[in-house]
Design brief:
With 190 residues, the protein is an alpha+beta fold. The chain has five helices and seven strands.
């Protein structure tokens, strides 16, 4: 039993693979469900949070189209069972000033859906992967989150308006979040 868990952790920590099969599917049938997502809560996940995929690994080719500035605005950290990074557009940006956030968690997708205050969840997809859209702060005109399950837990991205409310601000957080999620999904482990 100990050997199986060690193998699962090693396989799950690999990430970045574009194959349609979930990593370690043969050795982790009790952990990974039919859609390739982990089914156990974070407290039972054998992957230590320190070994989660780090959103800091996103290439500039993902940040640049969103106008996020890595050198001056990047903030990354590890809290409890979540690794996250955030970036922002320049303060002089014509398209509105907003932030982009990426979270990688050992929480399962089902566990994420139980978060109080995040509902209602609206079904959507990211590159064909089942996902949900929600607003963690309850205001879709200011922020939009999109989450999906992975073989190591779950991921979600956020686009959030920063600064004063501006009725002329062209930012549509959910449209931007959908595009952002697709870009992140291409590089994040599944």
């Amino acid at each position: 039993m100990v050997i199986v868990i060690v193998v699962v952790v090693a396989v799950m920590a690999g990430g970045g693979d574009d194959s349609s099969e979930s990593p370690g599917a043969e050795s982790s049938k009790s952990l990974v469900g039919p859609e390739g997502t982990i089914t156990v809560p974070a407290s039972e996940n054998p992957l230590p949070p320190e070994q989660l995929w780090d959103p800091k690994e996103l290439p500039d080719s993902v940040l640049d189209p969103m106008r996020f500035e890595r050198s001056t605005t990047e903030v990354c950290d590890l809290r409890q069972n979540v690794k996250s990074c955030q970036w922002a557009t320049p303060s002089w940006s014509e398209g509105g000033v907003y932030g982009g956030y990426v979270f990688a968690s050992t929480q399962s997708f089902d566990e994420l859906l139980q978060k109080r205050g995040w509902a209602p969840f609206e079904e959507t997809n990211v590159k064909g992967q089942k996902a949900v859209r929600f607003s963690a702060d309850g205001d879709f005109s200011r922020s939009c989150d999109i989450a999906w399950g992975t073989s190591f837990g779950s991921m979600w991205v956020t686009i959030r308006a920063i600064g004063k409310d501006d009725p002329n601000d062209p930012l549509n957080p959910c449209a931007s979040a959908a595009g952002w999620a697709g870009k992140v999904y291409e590089y994040a482990p599944r």
